[in-house]
Amino acid sequence: MAEPAAALGEFNFAGDDHVVPFQVEGLDVRGRAVQLGPMLDAILERHRYPAPVARLLAEVVVLTVLLGTSLKFDGKFTVQTKGDGPVDLLVCDFSTPENVRAYARFDQGLLDRAIAAGQVEPEQLLGKGMLAFTIDQGKFSQPYQGIVALDGATLEEIAGTYFRQSEQIPTRVRLAAAELFDRDDAGKPRHRWRAGGLVAQFLPEAPERMRQPDLHGGDGDTAGGSHKEDDAWMEARSLVETIDADELTDPQVGTERLLYRLFHERGVRVYEPREVFDRCSCSREKIKGVLKGFSAEEIDDSQEDGAISVTCEFCSTTYRFEVEEVAQAAE
């Protein structure tokens, strides 16, 4: 049962589509939490994805937003999966400071067979492959990419593995997505998507306290066995693992209320929320720039009835160019 709002004092709640940074000083933990509503719903409904695909993409959007809002520089953060399952591609871009776009690709026949067989768990839909995290600071720097295998685990678990292997920061990630069926103000039936998530990281002042138990077979394996985890991190992780998926998506359980329920005994501090928006980075000028690189033969092959139409896979906006316009730009 949710804590009463009065228990949190008198302050404004962040609400949907706002990432809330937080700190638990008693446990040396920092993190971010979010509930996504209208922004996510707009992305998913634009493409009318089947529910299993929409649910997967929603989790990727949450993960991207949680990690992307931590960037301290101008750039782009991308989370992308590639697998051999029915949903072979999921991609979400976060462009600082606040813009999000996302897209999913799937094989309808394979998806139908998976649904009929009841094989709709995330790991079954994604199959074997990889999850990539890419940070791009612009044309004056080389992009950084970290890759972790899709190996039959959930996106939560895979993200945790990435931080453990690549960042070496003890991290716990929680993700959830849900469909809501209710009625609008006029009493008409309404369908909406919501999602939520939380990332908590152990960041003590003494770096030696961050040491985690070694991964099996890793370079850190020792004859003496695995290292014991720090008690503070064990407590924080255990608290985060008590979160129900419904709490992450329930519009009646605000982000601050959830953080209070988890950490009030240790004292949790929340910071200014960061709002995120459904905004694509495509434009007519950008696409025209791509078409400039087309040869005369490619332009001819791409045209239909004297024009070339290009539809953005992310936002579904269609841009139409007259062949003469593209040909002149390509010269």
Automatic annotation (TrEMBL):
Q: Source organism's superkingdom?
A: Bacteria
Cited InterPro entries:
Heat_shock_Hsp33 (IPR000397), Heat_shock_Hsp33_C (IPR016154), Heat_shock_Hsp33_N (IPR016153), Hsp33_helix_hairpin_bin_dom_sf (IPR023212)
Basic and acidic residues composition-biased segments: 207-219
A biological-process GO annotation: protein refolding
- SUPFAM superfamilies in UniProt: Hsp33 domain (SSF64397), HSP33 redox switch-like (SSF118352)
One GO CC annotation: cytoplasm
What UniProt keywords are attached to this protein's entry? Answer: Chaperone, Cytoplasm, Disulfide bond, Redox-active center, Stress response, Zinc
Mind listing the GO molecular function terms for this protein?
A: protein folding chaperone; unfolded protein binding
NCBIfam families with a match to the protein in the record: PRK01402.1 (NF002386)
PANTHER family the UniProt entry points to: 33 KDA CHAPERONIN
Name the record gives this protein: Heat shock protein 33
- Its source organism is Rhizobium tibeticum
